[in-house]
Model the fold of this input.
Amino acid sequence: MRIPRVSLKDLLNDAGRAAEFRGKVVFAGVTSQTAAKDWLFTPYSTSTPMVGVEIHANAFETIAQGLFLTDAPPVEPLLFSLMVVAALGLAYSRFTGRAANGMAAGVMIAAHATPYWLFTQRIVFSFCMPVSAAWLS
Done:
């Protein structure tokens, strides 16, 4: 999300623009690349660093909207890993040949994709535990 910027010069030339800020949180700071010494790279800045006041505004938006990451309870990756091992064991104990390998491939894909899918839901889930369990079993 792009945070709107209004220069002090524009605000002084048109006092009516102050109404745009009514009921909003305002962060004031220097954004000139030559005047500010707090330009930093973030995971979302591509080739141009982001100015400190904009980093603070983005942090505020993240907290205000509750978009922060949460950790999965520690027992969930363990239980999921045990389910992966059990599913692979069942695939090879009940089926043979291509059927068993196809089912095992599906379980392997699920073991790799589940942590990613949970991360898209803002949940940090261990990647190493279920993937290691899948490959080692």
Remarks:
- The CA atoms of residues 27 and 53 lie 7 Å apart.
- The beta strands are 39-40, 50-51, 70-71, 123-124.
- The chain has a mean pLDDT of 88.
- The chain has five helices and four strands.
